[in-house]
Design a protein that fits this description.
By secondary structure, the protein is an all-alpha fold. It contains 18 helices and two strands. The chain has a two-stranded antiparallel sheet. Belongs to the MAP65/ASE1 family.
Length: 564
């Protein structure tokens, strides 16, 4: 039992000594028995000793090698742990011994858990980095427009010397940026596709064919990821620009056709039903290209229909233009005649020939006529008050003429069927005649004011109205003077002596001196030469100065002839 409690090293040494001593004694016994000489015995013992030293040396060398290997393993573990800490960007790892204590194997066993932990962390970090870089390469390939991409992890190169959290965050930020760029590109693609579809719907073109022609992946029917490369975006943008230019060209053509239709309708006085057929074309005249978005608004069919209608109306334009020109010429003449103005001179025959030959612009011709009519109506409106007063004056002058004839009738007070009626009319006529002087003065004031404002002479049936009124006033004054003179002369002549023999006084024959009912009632058939001349002066184009001289000469003759 005592030998079991002895230390292993001492026990091994004592056992060795006992074994070697026993063997040495046994060898000496053999030598003694054999009779081996001393020299030989010394030589064998020396060999035995040499072999023992060599055996010890081998064991020592082997132990040294094992120790060196442990030192190397420990150093490599320390270096690997340090390298992992540096690669992962960490300063320390829990469980790593702060001081080196114990044997080499104990130190290796102490560092092994920390080393395993760091290796696991590295493997996990590598997976994260590889996954992020794989996504980066995939999205980059999509942005670049590469249709094929190998997702094999062997194609992903990772820098093992930089696996820090900072580097991983950089990769993640890059991936986030690429995700944003991809989403932005997808949004642009969708915007372009929507624009193409809207433009195609407006013009009724095949949007699906246009989109597929750019790239099949853009068509949802193919069910593949959309190509979002720069080249595709450029093609989409070019297609949208091209469609917008086509839209603008069509709208400009519709605007041109719409204006042409409007001019032709106005020119030809088209009916509401004819205009309603192309109301959508006219509505587009006020639209800008950005305002036109309704499907089928500017199709090629609409343009063709409008072109056909313009062509049809253009063929009817010449005959309708002549009709409208003559109608407007008649309206112009009527407007001028009603207001007693001079009608602007127009060579109707020459214009008709120009319309037939196509040497005159129809719209400009009718616009020019409209301008003439507008100016005539504007001047007629400015003359309206004066013309109304002139009409009143003309009526009063007619009453004056009738009253003169009535006063000259010797039988006006005789008993007849119309005597009382003529008497009442004479009373009314005297009232109207009494207003002539004020009416003429009012017309003169307004006419002169009109002439000053317009800087032109007021013509009435191509004669200056002021001169006509002044001439009339002078004639009227002369007539009044002549009447006074005749009255004075009548007072000087003695009255004729009445015959006492006749019981009854013979009444003058009414057939010789009585004014006809038609003349008394305002007719012009039996008007005196003076009144007929004056009437022609207002209704015919005559020289008014010569007319005044003639009227003065005839008035004196008529007054003398009417005196009994």
């Amino acid at each position: 039992m005592g030998s079991l409690q002895t230390p292993i090293g001492m026990r091994s040494s004592s056992l060795l000594d006992m074994s070697c001593g026993y063997l040495l004694k046994e060898l000496q016994m053999i030598w003694d028995e054999v009779g081996e000489d001393k020299f030989e015995r010394e030589k064998v013992l020396l060999d035995i000793e040499q072999e023992c030293v060599e055996a010890y040396r081998r064991k020592v060398d082997h132990a040294n090698i094992s120790r060196s290997r442990l030192h190397q393993e420990l150093a490599e573990s320390e270096a690997e742990l340090t390298h992992l800490l540096l690669c992962l960007g960490e300063r320390s790892v829990p469980g790593r011994p702060e001081k080196k204590e114990g044997t080499l194997r104990e130190q290796l066993d102490a560092i092994a858990p920390a080393l395993r932990e760091m290796r696991l962390r590295k493997d996990e970090r590598v997976k994260q980095v590889r996954s992020v870089k794989g996504e980066i390469q995939k999205i980059s390939a999509e942005i670049a427009g590469r249709s094929t991409y190998e997702e094999s992890s062997t194609n992903i190169k990772i820098d093992d010397n930089d696996l820090s959290i900072k580097k991983l965050e950089e990769y993640q930020n890059e991936l986030h940026r690429l995700h944003d760029e991809k989403n932005e590109r997808l949004q642009k693609v969708e915007i372009y596709i929507c624009a193409i579809r809207d433009l195609s719907a407006t013009m009724e073109t095949e949007a699906s064919m246009i989109i597929t022609k750019i790239h099949p992946s853009l068509n949802d029917l193919y069910g593949i990821s959309k190509n979002i490369s720069d080249d595709i975006l450029k093609k989409l943008n070019g297609t949208v620009v091209s469609l917008e230019e086509e839209k603008q060209n069509r709208l400009e053509k519709i605007h041109h056709l719409g204006r042409a239709l409007s001019n032709l309708w106005n020119l030809m006085d088209a009916s509401y039903e004819d205009r309603q057929k192309f109301s959508h074309v006219i509505e587009l005249l006020s639209f800008e290209p950005s305002d036109v978005c309704a499907p089928g608004s500017i199709t090629s069919g609409i343009i063709q229909q409008a072109e056909a209608e313009v062509k049809r109306l253009d063929q009817l334009k010449a005959s309708k233009t002549k009709e409208l020109f003559l109608k407007k010429q008649k309206e112009l003449e009527t407007t001028c005649n009603i207001s007693h103005m001079e009608t602007p001179s127009t060579e109707v025959g020459d214009i008709i020939n120009l319309v037939d030959s196509g040497e005159i612009d129809h719209v400009e011709l009718l616009n020019a006529m409209d301008e003439k009519i507008a100016r005539a109506k504007e001047e007629a409106a400015s003359r309206k008050v004066i013309i109304e007063k002139v009409d009143r004056w003309m009526l009063a002058r007619d009453e004056e003429r009738w009253l003169e004839e009535y006063d000259q009738d010797e039988n006006r007070y005789s008993v007849s069927r119309n005597a009382h009626r003529n008497l009442r009319r004479a009373e009314r006529a005297r009232k109207e005649v009494s207003k002539i002087t004020g009416l003429v003065e009012s017309i003169l004031v307004k006419t002169k004011s009109w002439e000053e404002e317009r800087q032109k002479v007021f013509l009435y049936n191509e004669e200056p109205l002021v001169a006509m009124l002044q001439e009339y006033s002078n004639l009227r004054q002369e007539k009044e003077v002549e009447k006074l003179r005749l009255r004075e002369k009548k007072k000087i002549i003695p009255p004729p002596v009445a015959q006492q023999d006749n019981f009854y006084v013979a009444r003058p024959a009414s057939s010789n001196r009585r004014i006809s009912n038609r003349s008394i009632n305002g007719g012009y058939g039996s008007a005196s030469p003076l009144n007929r001349k004056l009437s022609r002066g207002f209704n015919n184009n005559t020289n008014y100065t010569a007319l005044g001289t003639s009227l003065r000469r005839e008035s004196s003759v008529i007054i003398k002839n009417t005196w009994p």
